Amino acid sequence: MGSFVLIDFDKVSMNNLNRQFVFSAQDIGQYKSDILAQRLMENQKVEARPIISEITSSRQLAKLAKGADLIICCADEPKGAIQSYVANAAVKAGTSALFGAVGINSGIIGPLLKDRSSLQIYLRWLRKVHSVCKKIIIPARFPSNGITNSIIADLIAWEAFQYLAKIGPSKVDACILNFNFKSFELTKKQEFRKK
Question: Which end of the chain is more exposed for a tag (fewer CB within 10 A), N or C?
Answer without folding.
Answer: C
